[in-house]
Amino acid sequence: MKFASYTVAGRASYGLVEGEWIADVGAVLAADYPDLRAVVAAGAYGAAQDAAAQAERLSLSEIVFAPVIPNPAKIFCVGHNYETHRQETGRAKTDYPSIFTRFADSQIGHRQAITLPKVSTMLDFEGELAVVIGTGGRSIPVADALSHVAGYGCYNDASVRDWQWHTQQFTPGKNFPGTGAFGPWLVTADEVGDPAALSVTTRVNGQVVQSQPTADMIFPVATLIAYISTFTPLSPGDVIVSGTPGGVGAKRQPPLWLKDGDVVEVDIPGVGLLMNKVRMEAEG
User: Which residue ranges does the record assign to the Fumarylacetoacetase-like C-terminal domain (predicted)?
Assistant: First the structure.
């Protein structure tokens, strides 16, 4: 199943994607499941399928995509989780994943504008596989970790590098409004299968700038879930953004910074194709 969150005629909703159409399940189930996170938390996929049979069909062209999970309690991002990216950044090898956080209100959906902040000239792309937790837990064993996954999506963890590099702490450069693109939809775990059998490709204006199989992750998805759930409980709807391959703009010669009007695509076959145009932040 593919679930998307969106607004239509000013109303927030979610639905089941069927080709170029979406069944407006949220309009039917709003009283019991007000958003997609509630569906995930309850495991109410059967109810969503039943509701889809009576829901209005909307064209994907008439909805405004929201982040797949608009209101996650936690978003964890993983740094330097592909060897190619670790090498290009000059980071030392480590026994543990590098974890930082992104705020939910920094997120945007598919086809929404990534914002180039007026205080920066160093906006970078980072195509990544996003993991949405379905069943929460604490100290989840690696062997059981994938059974806690609701599904997967595409993510562009767009990074404001000059602000990221102010200190050794990543937080400022990873949380500007309109920089965390998440979409276009959630593909349920049963349809995706092994997350290590995927590939992540990023394109800027049609040119491939990143491309690598997820099997090359230093810390696989199951390991990330086990590690993160050891220091904090994971809850349904929490998001793990699993790291970006090598090829980021900051480490190219010359650097490839995103500029107003650029189109960035994150393509994960079997999961989706996330597309966003870059727009300069308005003055004021």
Answer: 74-279
